[in-house]
Amino acid sequence: MHPNPALFFVINGGSGSSDSSATRQTIESAMRSAGRTYRMFVIDGPNDVDSTVKQAVETASTENGVVVAVGGDGTINAVANTALGSRCLFGALPQGTFNYFGRTHGIPEDLQRALDDLLQGEPSPVQVGLVNDRVFLVNASVGLYPELLEDREAFKQRYGRSRLVALWSAFVTALDHHRSLDLVLEQDGERAHLRSTTLFIGNNRLQLEQVGMREAEAVKQDQLAAIAVNHVGTLAMLWLAARGALGRLGDADNVTSFSFRSLTVSPSGKFLGKHSSHQTGPATSKDNPRKRRIKVAADGEIMWLQSPLEFRVAPEPLLLIKRRTEVDAA
């Protein structure tokens, strides 16, 4: 690594509550003060994400620089997804609502402090999760959780972006009626059937610790954590949500959890959600329920993937530029 590599920033103007122009001015000022070479790549809208990120990563790779994601967990995911395959050095300036990735790795939410850490940081390997070769740094899920994220985005557009709005939208979503998922899980050559409201795959220690899951430690040991909520009624769902808020979800009777490095998930029979006609998309084979497109949430972004879903730890880590601490060294 060059002692002062060029920095290539990918900025999402829609992430978080900060004004995009103010964010750019702060970055430009910090780069000029440090005498560092840099370039800005601005995402103007949802249709520009892939092309803008690809251009930034290719430029950073060619010039042996660092591509830096500026935005929430979704923006960070989009940049990491491209950077991982290119082996490009990666940085992040969290600007979202929850910022689980940044908080887990000690990246300050204050932009100026985060820039100071970026300029003085060095590469550190970070575990990456994959679902059908799509990157997730925080979590991936099917079932109720993607519904919750879609409802949360609608609430944010109406009431603004804040953690309180996000939590209120989750409460409203939990009150709605949801059907269960009939799934077949395959791990290490063994198969098991599962009926669940949602299947949540975690790759973020902080988020798992906050809801009280013992599998948080597994993320430190090159594994992912699976959390399945059994099919329960509305009151039981609200009770589980309350336990999660109190950090006691891991002790609940209606929750199944385990850790793994590789897990295959297939629909068994009907794969339905709140609005069944829109949940699974067109089946590719009427005689094979495994071959379907399934709605998946990865780091807050909704996508459609072909089943079976293959969740696994990526064979190589993401090289994150961050300031090393005594905890990192330990």
Topology, pairings included?
Layout: E1 7-12, H1 20-34, E2 38-43, H2 49-62, E3 66-71, H3 73-86, E4 89-94, H4 100-104, H5 111-120, E5 122-126, E6 129-131, E7 134-136, E8 139-143, H6 144-159, H7 163-175, E9 181-187, E10 190-202, H8 205-211, H9 216-219, E11 224-230, H10 234-245, E12 255-260, E13 262-271, H11 276-279, E14 293-298, E15 301-306, E16 309-313, E17 318-322, H12 326-329
Parallel strand pairs: 1-2, 1-3, 3-4
Antiparallel strand pairs: 5-17, 6-7, 6-16, 8-10, 8-14, 9-10, 9-13, 10-11, 11-12, 13-16, 14-15
Helix pairs in contact: 1-5, 2-3, 6-7
CATH class of the largest domain: Mainly Beta
Residue stretches low in confidence (pLDDT < 50, at least 5 long) are 271-285
Helix percent band: 25-40%
Q: Provide the structure class.
A: alpha+beta
In total, the number of domains comes to 2
Name the CATH architecture of the largest domain.
Sandwich
Q: Calculate the terminal CA-CA distance, rounded to whole Å.
A: 23 Å
Whole-number average pLDDT?
A: 80
**Percent strand:** 25-35%
**Helix tally?**
12
Could you give the count of β-strands?
Answer: 17
The third-level CATH topology of the largest domain is: Tumour Suppressor Smad4
Q: What gross morphology would you assign?
A: elongated
Order of helices and strands: EHEHEHEHHEEEEHHEEHHEHEEHEEEEH
